[in-house]
Backbone:
């Protein structure tokens, strides 16, 4: 090689992505619903990072999941769009439209596959988490009088054994999909006894898949260790409460249930009570009276407390703290207007609270109950900490 | 600015640290005891990373903790050395000697402070996790006949409320240190009723601090929600078993206890049994017969299974799987010789096993029991996944 040619060699200069302060383990992604963007808060540094991730689509009911290696977050949005966010550079590095209308997503325990639950066209789509390529589409349909009819799909979660579990709304059927086998077979299809499931969740130990039904006070519970046994029905009606004849018990949003200690805490939307079920028998044990209509019940990682948020202008700035041993309210805190979401930090030291009505994100010390940080965020709703990568069913 | 001066401006070229494949969330640090180094395994990529981190000192009983933002791991080694490892570049970026002989470390829940428990000189040292500067030294001593005598310290853990908890061996005293207050005060000093505590652990919910005593079949249990109540003593002797008069029940290593479902599983070293205590009452409920002398009991994140390793050449290549509902052995697996450590991946899909006698690290599928990956690692012992950042007391 002649010397002169060296001059023509472009200077190889690796320009790192704009370096972010702090590390990815303490990053929390806050949905700014009105602007279709994500704000990023660092819970150790206690500050908002300068960048926002924008152009993410319709963020109503948006859910974010994280790859187990913490390279990526995946945001599924209502308009059928899945965006891949690089957790280091905080840039969007991939996007795919899996449907016209999606509701939920999940990542397989091996980290290789993403499943999205879709309304239009109804089905379950499996993506490669690395390439974002669609690997499989399971269209959802069921038979009525010899005709095949389309169904929406919702409530997709990861489950032990590298499975995905979801439920068909019109089909009234739970699917268990094996993400370790070629072509992602639906290995179980389990009919629910009631019609119109509308939402589902998996218990944090990965054992039970719980399905709510429209206009019903009973949920369907499937023990994933023996799916062939089918669902059992569990009543959320308190036999000690009086109900107006025919009054429907309103619909709980399933992600709002909290499993802690021996109990399962269920916000009965439209009632001033939290139902307490026995975690083993699924029997309703009692109701805990509250200051208003509960929306979310969130457990501390210590399983010693459950924090509850409320609907309605008079109550939605408040959080009530339930003691899991006493099964009673021990604290009532005013945080900020229209609380949409809460989440504990992974070792339970703090609670992140989004107050949509005040455009604020709060960091509350779980031990002292003091608000230790407040940040301005536009119309915040869902809060997703990177540590969710390490929890079953999130 | 004149044009010519531009030529003098050095070309700003950010050279990123050697980029590693994969992400930090799936990195597992494996202690190579004989060579004083750490090997790094990626549990998603299923490969060893090319670099090792070397020159780390005496790695007997080395423990590694992780900052909540996942920027750093901190390895405390027997010779009093704390090394800070950059989890992205896998380089050592800090080192400090806090004593001549240390045993354990912990990181505060806010991520700002590291505590190391020390033998020589005995005490608890608090470091700044960012600068690695020593912020406080609590020398450990106690009074005997008007004289102050030095004590070793062990069993340091993080606890709810940004606390550290540790125990003085010769002092027979538990300390609770508040890491949120200036000068890190020892806010509680609780005497144990028995002498010579030698090790301790905190339950995964952060509630109970459990201390083992030399040559005793009773452990001390402190409820951290009411430390002023002092310790209660819990017997590990099975009333249904016959003991030779005077035979001491041998010493369980406290980190080897598994809390799962309603139970606490305790390997009774030197006996062919696992003791099962009720998690609420701390009463011994029964013993589970095993193929040999148990060393470690490790719970699945699903809390449905506990995996047990063994001592002794005839048994130490085996793992027995206990079903938490049936309280019985359901599987016996041969993995590799001299199993020193096991850990589940965070959503429970796999178990990492170090087989010191075979110089191997195994990845076992927890559902199928199949060995899915084997790597050669020199004299492996402790296995520390980055996800430990998000667990209380690890």
Residues:
């Amino acid at each position: 090689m002649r010397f002169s040619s060296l001059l023509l060699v472009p200077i190889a200069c690796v320009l790192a992505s704009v370096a972010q302060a702090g590390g990815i383990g303490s990053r929390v992604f806050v949905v700014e619903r009105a602007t279709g963007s994500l704000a990023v808060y660092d819970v150790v540094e206690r500050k908002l990072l300068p960048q926002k991730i924008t152009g993410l689509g319709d963020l109503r009911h948006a859910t974010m999941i994280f790859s187990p290696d913490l390279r990526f977050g995946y945001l599924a949005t209502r308009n059928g769009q899945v965006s891949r966010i690089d957790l280091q550079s905080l840039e969007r590095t991939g996007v795919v439209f899996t449907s016209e209308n999606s509701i939920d997503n999940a990542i397989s325990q091996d980290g290789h596959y993403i499943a999205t639950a879709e309304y239009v066209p109804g089905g379950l789509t499996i993506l490669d988490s690395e390439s974002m390529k669609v690997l499989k589409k399971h269209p959802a349909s069921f038979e009525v009088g010899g005709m095949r009819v389309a169904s929406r799909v919702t409530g997709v979660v990861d489950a032990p054994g590298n499975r995905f579990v979801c439920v068909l709304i019109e089909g009234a059927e739970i699917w268990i999909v094996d993400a370790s086998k070629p072509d992602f077979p639906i290995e179980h299809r389990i009919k629910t006894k009631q019609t119109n499931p509308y939402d589902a969740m998996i218990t944090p130990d990965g054992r039970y898949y719980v399905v709510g039904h429209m206009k019903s006070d009973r949920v369907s519970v499937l023990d994933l260790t023996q799916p062939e046994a089918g669902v059992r029905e569990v009543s959320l009606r308190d036999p000690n409460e009086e109900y107006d004849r025919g009054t429907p018990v309103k619909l709980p949003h399933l992600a709002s249930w909290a499993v802690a200690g021996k109990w399962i805490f269920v916000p009965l939307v439209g009632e001033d009570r939290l139902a307490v079920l026995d975690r083993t028998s699924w029997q309703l044990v009692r109701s805990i009276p509250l200051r208003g209509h509960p929306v979310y019940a969130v457990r501390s990682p210590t399983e010693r407390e459950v924090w509850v948020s409320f609907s309605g202008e008079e109550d939605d700035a408040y959080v009530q703290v339930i003691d899991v041993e006493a099964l009673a309210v021990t604290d009532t805190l005013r945080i900020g207007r229209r609380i949409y979401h809460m989440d504990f930090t992974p070792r339970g030291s703090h609670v992140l609270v989004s107050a949509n009505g005040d455009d604020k994100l709060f960091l509350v010390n779980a031990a002292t109950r003091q608000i230790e940080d407040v940040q301005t965020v536009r119309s915040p709703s869902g809060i997703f900490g990177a540590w969710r990568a390490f929890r079953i069913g999130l």
Residues 3-8 of chain B form the longest helix (6 residues). The CA atoms of residues 316 and 338 of chain B lie 5 Å apart. Residues 1-19 of chain B have pLDDT under 50 and may be disordered. DSSP finds one helix and 34 strands in chain B.
